[in-house]
Amino acid sequence: MSPVLPQSAPRFAMRRHPVRRPATQLLPFSPAEPKPEAGALAQGETGWREESLKRPTADCPPPNFQTSPAPLVGMARLAANAPEAETKRKSAEKPEYFFLPVKSILNRCESERVPFEWTVNPYRGCEFACKYCYARHTHEYMEIDGGEFERKIFVKQDAAALLARDVTQKYSYASRASGFTKAEHIAIGTATDPYQPAEREYGVTRACLEQLAKREGLSVSIITKSNQIVRDLDLLRVIAGKSALSVNITVTTLKPRLARVLEPRAPHPDLRLAAVEELHDAGIHVGVSASPLLPGITDGEGELEGVAEAAKQAGAEWFFSGVLFLMPASARQFLPFIEQKFPKLAKQYREWYVKNGYAPEAYRKKMAERVLRIRQQFGFASRPWEGDRPTFAQTQLSLGWDAGEISGGLKGMRSCGAE
């Protein structure tokens, strides 16, 4: 059985730093240009002037006017009062863990950009610290800076009991998207990795799988960068025998040193591929995601093809990849990282991503065509479970994770997995 999360614990107030709201532009001034001094704007320009500071009005208080911070509400208030979770880890670099009381674990996803109706995210935050992670914005819902995404990990309390209740009360075995003929789809791990190191201690993911293993006719998928998933092969076999189950393992590069730079605390690529092989040998439908594809970093000639070939040899049934999409919270972390680690690419990334979260359409189209050729070359299905599907009264939804849909799908996840 999974560890039992405490029902209650001493609560304390966490100190929070104010979070800057996304600006119209992430980098309003080029690094090569000096930032204007206060009051240096021309008289004809719109903006603050020194003179306006000297003449305070009701709307513009003087600089020394002190205002009280707005009270925290909702998820931010819960996070601010979340009790600290005990951990056996002794490393000085370990993150802070907190127990987060939540009202629900099965989160409705309304976006039409993604091929699932429900998400389950056992944790908030992720210790893998992937530099490009699109889910950093979920910490901002709690009034915590996105840079803390890998340093403050929230463990959702009573997740298993909540999931059992939510599936009973919310889940439908006949989704509207399928014309009421197939079960709604539950995606596990859309805004956090369900098998990050926290799972070894708190076991929330396994507790959730234990509940799903009691049901029949569900449609479930899991996405992770961790080989720790093989720990739960016993439960995965049970779920696969009763419901439609697919697993997606993310492998962005085969280069160990590059992977360590991009995904500092995620397992080695070889370990992830070994997990693909073990899942395949156990009869679990498994595929590989090479998303995101990073322009100028992981899109070199033969590099994506190498990941696909290794995935095929490991037994992956499908393969997909989509070009990097940067939300503002992610861009504030990723663009300075590019400046530091890949300075020759900094100008290109600024031009592409400062005003728009997407790479140029021409580049995305070129990469989508390349992914299509790779699938044809290695005989991959384009979607999870293309072809060999189990026959249930409620079958799995067709997950349209084609390369051209990935970047748009990630954008759609902004409204998903934020519970």
Could you explain the architecture of this structure?
With 419 residues, the chain is an alpha/beta fold. It has a domain at 91-223. It is 32% helix and 10% strand. The chain has 14 helices and ten strands. The strands form two sheets. The chain has a seven-stranded mixed sheet. Strand 9 (285-289), helix 10 (303-314) and strand 10 form a beta-alpha-beta unit. Helix 4 packs parallel to helix 6, helix 10 (303-314) packs parallel to helix 13 and helix 11 (328-341) runs antiparallel to helix 12. The chain is globular, with a radius of gyration of 23 Å. It starts with 49 loop residues before the first helix and ends in a 7-residue tail after the last helix.
List the helices and strands and how they pair.
Layout lengths: L49 H5 L19 H7 L15 E5 L5 E3 L9 E3 L2 E2 L12 H4 L11 E5 L2 H12 L14 E4 L9 H5 L1 H9 L6 E6 L8 H10 L1 E7 L5 H7 L6 H13 L3 E5 L13 H12 L4 E2 L7 H14 L4 H8 L7 H18 L24 H10 L7
Helix pairs in contact: 4-6, 9-10, 10-13, 11-12
Q: Looking at the structure, what is the overall shape?
A: globular
Tell me the distance between the termini: 25 Å
What does the radius of gyration come to? 23 Å
Q: Tell how many strands the DSSP assignment holds.
A: 10
β-strand percent reads 5-15%
Structural class: alpha/beta
Please name the defining characteristics of this protein.
419 residues; 10 strands; 3-stranded mixed sheet
At a glance:
This protein is α/β, with parallel strands linked by helices and 419 residues long.
